[in-house]
């Protein structure tokens, strides 16, 4: 299963970004083997519509789950429409690896 984590950098050791649509990176993690793909967030500097555009990018990479601190209203609607599970409340003190491991442990 592919998990999209909003992140401050493009690695498993990067801190989680608490803002999904404005996160500098998304780290797409394959839960089977913890391989990952860093993706620069093209929506980070958009005037409006960053949340839905960020969700489109996550969906384009096959994400079934999004882990982040917060989803704005438009992003929340877009996540639901895309059939992606949105998990919020992930602290920016955690690394991408820690966030994914904690999510998988609760599954």
Tell me about this structure.
By secondary structure, the chain is of the alpha/beta class. It has one domain (2-106): Dinitrogenase iron-molybdenum cofactor biosynthesis domain (Nucleotidyltransferase, domain 5), CATH 3.30.420.130. The protein is built from 3 helices and 5 strands, in the order E-E-E-H-E-H-E-H. A 5-stranded mixed beta sheet has the order 3-2-1-4-5, with helices on both faces. Strand 2 (25-30) and strand 3 (35-40) form a beta hairpin. Helix 1 (50-60) runs parallel beside helix 2 (73-82). The radius of gyration is 12 Å and the shape is globular. The N and C termini lie close together (12 Å). 38% of the residues are buried.
Architecture blueprint of SSEs:
Layout: E1 2-7, E2 25-30, E3 35-40, H1 50-60, E4 63-67, H2 73-82, E5 85-87, H3 96-106
Helix pairs in contact: 1-2
Offer a few descriptive terms:
five-stranded mixed β-sheet; alpha/beta; 24% strand; Nucleotidyltransferase, domain 5; 3 helices; 107 residues
Q: Summary?
A:
The chain is an alpha/beta fold and 107 residues long. Helix content is 30%, strand content 24%.
Largest sheet data: 5 strands, mixed
**What is the CATH-assigned architecture?**
2-Layer Sandwich
Based on Cα principal axes, name the global outline: globular
- The CATH class: Alpha Beta
CATH topology: Nucleotidyltransferase, domain 5
* Tally of discrete structural domains: 1
User: How far apart, in Å, are the first and last alpha carbons?
Assistant: 12 Å
SSE string, helices as H and strands as E: EEEHEHEH
Strand order of the largest sheet: 3-2-1-4-5
Low-confidence stretches: none
Count of DSSP strands: 5
Mean pLDDT: 95
Helical coverage, percent range: 25-40%
């Amino acid at each position: 299963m592919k998990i999209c984590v909003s992140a401050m950098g493009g690695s498993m050791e990067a801190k989680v970004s608490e803002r999904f649509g404005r996160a500098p990176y998304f780290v797409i993690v394959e839960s089977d083997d913890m391989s990952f793909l860093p993706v620069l967030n093209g929506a980070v500097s958009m005037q409006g519509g960053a949340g839905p555009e960020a969700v489109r990018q996550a969906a384009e990479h096959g994400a079934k789950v999004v882990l982040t601190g917060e989803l704005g209203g438009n992003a929340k609607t877009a996540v639901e429409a895309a059939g992606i599970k949105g998990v919020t409340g992930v602290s920016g003190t955690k690394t991408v690896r820690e966030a994914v491991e904690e999510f998988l442990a609760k599954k």
